Amino acid sequence: MANESWIPGYSPSTDFSLANIPFGIISTPEDSTPRPAIAIGDFALDLKTWLAEVNREKLTGIFSGVDIDQLNHALSQPTLNVFAALGRPVHKIVRKGLQDVLRKDTPHLQLLRDDDNVKAKTLRRLSEVTMHLPMEIGDYTDFYAGYHHAYAVGVMFRGPENALQPNYMHLPVGYHGRASSIVVDGTPIRRPVGQILLDPKAEPKQPVTGPTRKLDIELELGCFISKPNKMGESVDVNQAEEHIFGYVLLNDWSARDIQAWEYVPLGPFNGKNFGTTISAWVVLADALEPFKVKTEIENKTELQEYLKGHEEKTVFDIKLEVDLRTADGSMTTIGRTSSKYLMWSFPQMIAHHTLGGCPMRPGDLLGSGTISGPGGVEERGSLLEMTENGKKEVLLAGMNARTFLKDGDSITLRGFCADDGDGVRVGFGRCSGKIYGAAQR
Amino acid sequence: MANESWIPGYSPSTDFSLANIPFGIISTPEDSTPRPAIAIGDFALDLKTWLAEVNREKLTGIFSGVDIDQLNHALSQPTLNVFAALGRPVHKIVRKGLQDVLRKDTPHLQLLRDDDNVKAKTLRRLSEVTMHLPMEIGDYTDFYAGYHHAYAVGVMFRGPENALQPNYMHLPVGYHGRASSIVVDGTPIRRPVGQILLDPKAEPKQPVTGPTRKLDIELELGCFISKPNKMGESVDVNQAEEHIFGYVLLNDWSARDIQAWEYVPLGPFNGKNFGTTISAWVVLADALEPFKVKTEIENKTELQEYLKGHEEKTVFDIKLEVDLRTADGSMTTIGRTSSKYLMWSFPQMIAHHTLGGCPMRPGDLLGSGTISGPGGVEERGSLLEMTENGKKEVLLAGMNARTFLKDGDSITLRGFCADDGDGVRVGFGRCSGKIYGAAQR
């Protein structure tokens, strides 16, 4: 595929390259209706408006094999759920058709490139559009598939002998998260108030109520479901790819002190449900296909049949970074890792999640769990790990240091895949949020 | 209030009495569109159709203070979410107006009672309507507020000294459940397949994959949210009643063996997400108001401020029963208890859930946790407790016995409040489900 586009200022090394074509939901100052778009270079292409401008016969040519009425309907919704539900074969054709319209040597000159009227109506600088949640999220599940994170946290709380629970190597451990507090990139996050046990060793245990003192991040990859499964039916691990719409970055903000007191025996609750941020643009499964690799984590455990047998390359080598910006404006990259350190693949997570017949719906979101590398503090996806639960400071630019987040701090997750050979980059854009002060009580 | 209605065959001792007026979503053989209705005696009144038949001026009279356009809009939706969002003052007026139309001495004769045409269009026998999920459920949270259940299960697994975790008396412990697998009364439930550790003592621990051998029930009360709170803002415990739409019975089906292997450290997952059944008719908060009592569970712990201060009578004395019907048709009531054994009230659960700013939306569902009484096996809300995790059998009618559920078994939860003085009963109808065999593998 040619990697050049006629889009002004385009470079193949942008996150939103021709090889990417991520989908999102935008609105503009003139039209506050949220609607589907793709990102290309520094621009968003308003798909709803564009489809209405283009001759129907031409659309049939570009998106050969796709029902144009269905597509029009799907791409005039306020979320991407209906488009996701059309299924991966349709996503493939639509992505390819849009690449054909946007590439430098496009034969479809009049569809966009050479029609100034249509361009003016449909192409907008990303800096001028407002992004919305891309999907209506029915259910959100958060897994725990980042091996180095699970191990490091386990060592911290239970020592190296019992770091991982006995089930960890047998199944992708996960829990149900809170869908209502998932927000899009850029949404401010309020420091939560909660019950905290200040002295865990004192007896009797006496909590206090106040703002969390241990506000943390979790660097994760998110996966959106497209094709549903019926209640009572499971998804085969080898068919699970067909149930995936695409991927986003995900920051599972966590209040470690609230979590520590509440989580036994039923799992994390208020320590997590005050906010989860995802990046705005959904990178389609097909765009990430060239970056599949074998997981770096060797699991010597004999797997149960339903988790076995899918292809060797099951995870992605997405370079991931965590930036912390303090209120004084100084910025430090505090973590760098890769999603190749996930021990379980998303197809395995889907096979496990549906094993007992749990139905998944288009728009359901799966989080990978925190991703950390095998190295030192600079490869960690949470401050819990970087600071050994607050015991050591992370040094920042501008003479700053942190154990956990302060009010006014901003966190930005970034992620991209790069093929050094041809300079192609497929990236996720930003997943960011700024902390503001807790509610007065 | 007069307790007599002109509805054919009406008796004040029906679950769906004039003092109740529960809301649900019905469809009929002639019109498959799900639409709002109320239940009265053995009948459903199709509200969408009825509102369209009644003169607008008359509606303004009956529902004085309610915006009739808003009400029409809300009661022509396929779920009750929009109606719930109108808020408790509106629910109160609408319930009262409908009681006026339905009571024996109604002054509104032409609105329904004496108009055979309207009656034929809007009143249907309950046996002839199909019930649907009453709400679109965004998020489902399950609490653990049944003290005797939590204690009994704790003793079973950790002994009497450590039966309750240290946080139990300080906060309403809860976890995020799965919304996609919540189904309405009567929906069959498939026995789930999952990973099971057959011999928990053997090392190394080696699970197998197969149908659960420990399929259980959990007798719970469910609570639907009406008024939302914004992300970042909490709900005061004394204001929380205004955020409640109404109540249903809830059976949180559980696979104990799957749950036991998976739940450490992040909580229940596949052991629960294969199905949760709720009763079809939402009993409004106002209908239960006369049956409020002080909880039977004395908590001597000094509570955090945000959980304190709401009125003394905080839980309901709803008589609850669990019926088990085997495939041969014989039926046994295996459990009888009351919701007065909940230690935490729903207002306290809401105050805790939103303490850190978690947003709740109309249609969100809260489960109380399993409700058990202080007595013997006949007062328990789960087979886990009745059988001491499968060690003892529960004897049933027809020479049957069970530890956990077999394929072909049906469970029906029932619940009602009764005022012995005036014979008024406010009930929930059925919450039932029949088990069918696991998927072939």
UniProtKB/TrEMBL annotation, chains A, B:
Known cofactor(s): Mg(2+); Ca(2+)
Keywords associated with the record: Calcium, Hydrolase, Magnesium, Metal-binding, Phenylalanine catabolism, Tyrosine catabolism
Annotated ranges, domain Fumarylacetoacetase-like C-terminal: 164-414
GO molecular function list: fumarylacetoacetase activity; metal ion binding
Top-level enzyme category: hydrolase
Positions annotated as active site in the UniProt record: H149
EC nos: 3.7.1.2
UniProt xrefs under Gene3D superfamilies: Fumarylacetoacetase, N-terminal domain, Fumarylacetoacetase-like, C-terminal domain
InterPro entries hit by this protein: Fumarylacetoacetase, Fumarylacetoacetase-like_C, Fumarylacetoacetase_C_sf, Fumarylacetoacetase_N, Fumarylacetoacetase_N_sf
Swiss-Prot/TrEMBL GO biological process terms: homogentisate catabolic process; L-phenylalanine catabolic process; L-tyrosine catabolic process
Highest taxon above the source species: Eukaryota
Residues that hold Mg(2+) according to the record: D252, K272, T276
Pathway assignment: Amino-acid degradation; L-phenylalanine degradation; acetoacetate and fumarate from L-phenylalanine: step 6/6
NCBIfam families for this protein: fum_ac_acetase
Family as reported in the entry's similarity comment: Belongs to the FAH family.
Official protein name in the record: Fumarylacetoacetase
